[in-house]
Amino acid sequence: MVSKCYCCNVGEEETIQHIFLTAPIAQKLWNHFASCAGINIEGLHLQQLITTWWDWPAKHKLRQILKAMPTIIMWELWKRRNARRHGREVAYEKMKSQCHKTAQMLLRVKYPWIKGGDQDWKDMIAILNTYKPKLHFRPVHWDPPDADCG
Ligand SMILES: [Zn+2]
After folding, report:
1. Gap from CA of 81 to ligand 1 centroid (Å)
2. Separation of 6 CA from ligand 1 center, angstroms?
3. Does residue 40 sit in helix, strand or coil?
4. Ligand 1 centre and the CA of 118: distance in Å?
5. How high is the pLDDT of residue 130?
6. What is the DSSP letter of 113?
7. What is the pLDDT of residue 115?
8. Which spans in the chain are helix H?
9. Which residues contact 62 (CB under 8 A, 6 or more apart)?
10. Confidence grade of residue 48 (pLDDT, cut at 50, 70, 90)
């Protein structure tokens, strides 16, 4: 017998798909992060959803953040499920901002020189999508030695 879930008030069967994907609050969280990133996740199973994020064609630095998002989102959903199991409520907005904060931290750790770690999710994507590294260069000139110098 499958136990009832803690994520909805209705109490659906608690399956992996339900907790992490099909529960209304999970759908809302995924949709928020996916739609801002231009990722279409409609009709995907959990595994397909994760690999869609992993394989999403984006600039290299943005990809590193997108790749981490399924783990970040699922971790927050799991924490909320456990909190509710023990009688504590976790608001949707709290989960959303926690996911975003974790993404910001990842950005700061991975690319400390990129400004924009305090931007919201949408701006963060825009910054990473248009990021161009500043190239520092110094022209170097070399003259061959004279033939008779020894
Ligand atoms: Zn549920």
Report:
1. 9
2. 6
3. coil
4. 32
5. 86
6. T
7. 78
8. 16-17, 24-37, 46-55, 60-85, 92-110, 121-130
9. 125, 128, 129
10. very high
- pLDDT > 90 fraction of the chain, expressed in percent and rounded: 68
> What are the distances in angstroms from CA 120 to CA 25, 78, 147?
20, 23, 63
Cα–Cα–Cα angle for 69, 75, 81, rounded to 5 degrees: 140
Q: Distance from the CA of 28 to the center of ligand 1, in angstroms? A: 13
Residue corresponding to tokens 């630095």? 61
Q: Is the pLDDT of residue 150 over 80?
A: no
| Residue 19, burial from CB neighbour count under 10 angstroms (0-12, 13-18, 19+) | buried
For residue 117, the CA-to-ligand 1 centroid distance in Å is 33
The whole-number pLDDT of residue 116 equals 65
CA of 20 to the centre of ligand 1 (A): 9
Task: Note the pLDDT of residue 101.
Answer: 94
